[in-house]
């Protein structure tokens, strides 16, 4: 038997709403789901809700909540990158989770997209957090997105029968496609004056936004620092059919700090080649739940493959 308990709690004067999934006998480690924006606590295709019910049925207490400015919670969402502004939201959620479920001795964070990024930025600051599960992390760079688009989209186009049919039947717009290709090349090879990648505005995926603060280090660098400082176990799940995941893996293969961190034995990696960004079909969603459950219940690891 499991309970689903609605809760609300205060974060710097704003009411946040959430749900706790409570097994009859909770394990000592619970799971806190951090949503990615724009998203709320149910998740795309009800993914977060169904994941929570799946894990609670196996004895793992789960909490999912809306951070400020999302879903039913009060407050304003941080911009341009929400994941950089929710440390206090996560901390008060952990406080609430442990208070509501006194059997808990430790908490694992679970995040998709920029929810994963937020988890990596926060985890090392809270000793109660002993595990982090990150799915298709958002590394937020204009050049990185362009490189992923070149690698992911154009390769598929060249292997597509429909692409070649359009060419043979003179239905292909060469000028527009060439302009798009060249603009992607320019974006992929450009950076800031300091040689760093500029952050993207999540509301305008194809645009480049200025950094939040003059001289601020890019989000992906601070995520790598957070991962390096975190001493707990990490689960990394990557979709094979997703531009954001491709962008992350491109970064991981080309950046020495990321490469070294992802080769650590404390990190378990799974790649789901067929899956899209939000694991939108039942088989993909169920597999993610199995990997999450096994990771939480096991002390073993699965080596990351970085090419």
Brief rundown of the structure:
Helix content is 39%, strand content 21%. The protein is built from ten helices and ten strands. The strands form two sheets. Strands 1-2-4-3-5-6-9-10 form an eight-stranded mixed sheet, with helices on both faces. The protein has a two-stranded antiparallel ribbon with strand order 7-8.
Tell me the layout of helices and strands.
Blueprint (H helix, E strand, L loop, with lengths): L1 E10 L2 E10 L5 E6 L12 H10 L5 E4 L21 H14 L5 E7 L1 H9 L6 E7 L6 H17 L2 H8 L5 H16 L10 E2 L2 E5 L10 H11 L3 E7 L3 H12 L1 H7 L4 E6 L9 H16 L10
Parallel strand pairs: 3-4, 3-5, 5-6, 6-9, 9-10
Antiparallel strand pairs: 1-2, 2-4, 7-8
Descriptors:
eight-stranded mixed sheet, 10 helices, two-stranded antiparallel sheet, 2 domains, 307 residues, 21% strand, alpha/beta, Rossmann fold, 39% helix
Instruction: Report strand %.
Output: 15-25%
Distance between the first and last residues' Cα: 44 Å
Number of strands: 10
Low-confidence stretches: 184-188, 191-215
Helix content: 25-40%
What would you note in describing this structure?
- By secondary structure, the protein is an alpha/beta fold.
- It has two domains: 2-141 and 210-297, Rossmann fold (3-Layer(aba) Sandwich), CATH 3.40.50.1820; 142-196.
- It is 39% helix and 21% strand.
- It has helices at 47-56, 87-100, 114-122, 142-158, 161-168, 174-189, 219-229, 243-254, 256-262, 282-297, and strands spanning 2-11, 14-23, 29-34, 62-65, 106-112, 129-135, 200-201, 204-208, 233-239, 267-272.
- The strands form two sheets. It has an eight-stranded mixed sheet with strand order 1-2-4-3-5-6-9-10, sandwiched between helices. A two-stranded antiparallel sheet has the order 7-8.
- The radius of gyration is 20 Å and the shape is globular.
- The protein starts with a strand and ends in a 10-residue tail after the last helix.
- The model is unreliable at 184-188 and 191-215 (pLDDT under 50).
């Amino acid at each position: 038997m499991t309970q689903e308990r609605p809760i609300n709690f205060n974060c710097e004067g704003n009411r946040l709403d959430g749900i706790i999934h409570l097994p009859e006998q909770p394990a000592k480690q619970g799971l806190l789901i951090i949503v990615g924006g724009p998203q709320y606590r149910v998740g795309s295709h009800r993914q977060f809700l169904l994941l929570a019910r799946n894990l609670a049925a196996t004895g793992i207490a789960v909490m999912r909540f809306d951070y400020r400015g999302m879903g039913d919670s009060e407050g304003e969402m941080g911009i341009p990158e929400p994941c950089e502004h929710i440390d206090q939201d996560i901390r008060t959620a952990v406080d609430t989770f442990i208070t509501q479920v006194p059997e808990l001795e430790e908490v694992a964070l679970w995040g998709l997209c920029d929810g994963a990024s937020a988890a990596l930025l926060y985890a090392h600051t809270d000793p109660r957090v002993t595990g982090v599960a990150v799915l298709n992390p958002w590394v937020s760079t204009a050049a990185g997105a362009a490189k992923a688009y070149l690698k992911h989209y154009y390769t598929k186009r060249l292997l597509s029968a429909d692409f070649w049919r359009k060419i043979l039947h003179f239905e292909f717009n060469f000028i527009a496609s060439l302009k798009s290709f060249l603009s992607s090349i320019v974006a992929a090879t450009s950076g800031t004056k300091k040689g760093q990648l500029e952050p993207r505005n999540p509301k305008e995926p194809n645009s480049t936004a200025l950094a939040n603060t003059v001289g601020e280090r890019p989000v992906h660098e601070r995520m790598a620092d957070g991962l390096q400082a975190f001493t707990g176990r990490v689960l990394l799940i990557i979709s094979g059919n997703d531009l954001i995941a491709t962008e992350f893996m491109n970064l991981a293969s080309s950046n020495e700090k990321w490469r070294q961190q992802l080769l650590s034995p404390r990190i378990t990696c799974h790649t789901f080649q067929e899956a899209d960004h939000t694991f939108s079909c039942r088989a993909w969603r169920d597999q993610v739940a199995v990997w999450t459950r096994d990771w939480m219940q096991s002390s073993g690891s699965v080596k990351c493959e970085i090419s």
